[in-house]
Write a structure and sequence with these properties.
This protein is of the alpha+beta class. The protein has one domain: TATA-Binding Protein, CATH 3.30.310. 38% of the residues lie in helices and 32% in strands. It contains three helices and seven strands. It has helices spanning 2-17, 43-56, 111-129; strands at residues 22-24, 31-32, 60-65, 68-75, 78-86, 90-99, 107-109. It is elongated, with a radius of gyration of 19 Å. The relative contact order is 0.21.
């Protein structure tokens, strides 16, 4: 009987660990502009590849200032706003605001990490093709 109880509790712990909806707020830091071509892309090419990457993943993106693109993702009842700052060699994605993502200053909905990583991967892929 004790063995059944132990296995039941272990199964419950495993099931509940998958239900965690928030993670510590990730900081991806500065990312190097990926480039495997002969020439380094110029600032306008980088800006366009960032916007193209965001739009291709369903984000709305617009230039706020030189070296800054604001991107907004709306999925069902969730909204995420990030600021992408960039220069000729690096870019950085920073959290700006969100709705229904349980952000409390230290943690956020776990889907945030997937959305931002997907955006970073697409930006890198676009710059490689530029």
């Amino acid at each position: 009987m004790n063995r059944i109880l132990v296995w039941a509790l272990l199964g419950l712990c495993i099931a509940l660990s998958g239900c965690r909806t928030t993670i510590p707020m990730p900081d991806y830091g500065q990312q190097t502009i990926a480039n495997y071509g002969q020439t380094q892309p110029d600032i306008n090419q980088i800006e366009q590849s960032i916007i193209k990457a965001a739009v291709s993943l369903g984000w709305q993106a617009h230039v706020v200032d030189a070296g800054k693109v604001e991107a907004t993702l709306n999925i069902r009842t969730h909204q995420l706003v990030v600021m992408i700052t960039y220069d000729e060699t690096h870019y950085k994605i920073d959290y700006v605001d969100s709705t229904n993502l349980k952000y409390d200053g230290k943690s956020i909905h776990r889907q945030y990490a997937n959305w931002v990583r997907n955006l970073m991967n697409r930006i890198n892929a676009n710059n490689v093709r530029s």
